[in-house]
Inverse folding.
């Protein structure tokens, strides 16, 4: 059972609990751009990413997006099981950023496991603590970091994820990740280009000076916002 390697607590569950998961787990392959989950709809359950890349984000009433986390191989997400966390007051959206394969354990089953297994309960608490910590970090970035440093950090992360300095991404898409307006991203990218950090072409951002962007994201000397 390959999925067992993606669930850290597998070896701490009883044979009966393992069998229940094996019978109920759902395997899905989704193409890039597929909308996977909206926490205002049915509760999906615990997601384990086999391969690919998913994006979790919040959508405001005005339609503005901001990325919370990006999930890659072996990542586990509990934000897709909002019914397990009835006090969660914001709507989490999940989409596939790349062609992806994933497993999901039904929320009702995982909630039952949390009541039966201390390992499952501790694992859920650990996942939520991680999600909360990331949200707090995101709030800190939004409140205290200028947009040039946030954009630099995004470009550095994107280069690492894509394993290239030639990024095929639109300004609108970056704005959705950062929770800002496309015009703000475009203006800042033009500043970056004038400083020799990037080269802009239609639909593509060529990172020219990655070390400079890395210094900028650490709030070292960089272009003014």
């Amino acid at each position: 059972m390959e999925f067992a390697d993606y669930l850290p607590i597998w070896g701490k569950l009883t044979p009966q609990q393992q069998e229940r998961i094996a019978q109920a787990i759902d395997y899905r392959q989704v193409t890039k751009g597929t909308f996977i989950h909206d926490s205002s709809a049915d509760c999906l359950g615990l997601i384990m990413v086999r391969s690919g890349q998913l994006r979790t984000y919040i959508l405001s009433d005005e339609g503005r997006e901001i990325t919370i986390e990006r999930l890659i191989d072996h990542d586990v997400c509990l934000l897709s099981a909002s019914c397990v966390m009835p006090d969660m007051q914001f709507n989490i959206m999940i989409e596939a950023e790349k062609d992806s394969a994933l497993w999901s354990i039904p929320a009702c089953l995982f909630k039952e496991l949390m009541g039966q297994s201390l390992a499952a309960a501790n694992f859920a608490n650990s996942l939520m603590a991680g999600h909360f910590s990331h949200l707090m970090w995101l709030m800190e970035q939004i409140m205290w970091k200028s947009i040039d440093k946030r954009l630099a950090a995004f470009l550095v992360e994107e280069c690492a994820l894509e394993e290239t300095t030639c990024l095929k991404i639109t300004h609108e898409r970056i704005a959705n990740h950062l929770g800002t307006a496309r015009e703000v991203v475009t203006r800042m990218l033009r500043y970056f280009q004038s400083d020799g950090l990037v080269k802009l072409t239609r639909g593509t951002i060529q990172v020219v000076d990655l070390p400079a962007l890395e210094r900028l994201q650490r709030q070292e000397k960089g272009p003014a916002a």
User: Anything to note?
Assistant: Residues 145-217 form a domain with the Arc Repressor Mutant, subunit A fold (CATH 1.10.10.10). The chain has two domains: 2-142, 145-217. The helical segments are 15-24, 107-116, 118-144, 147-162, 171-178, 182-194, 210-217. Confidence is low (pLDDT under 50) at residues 220-225.
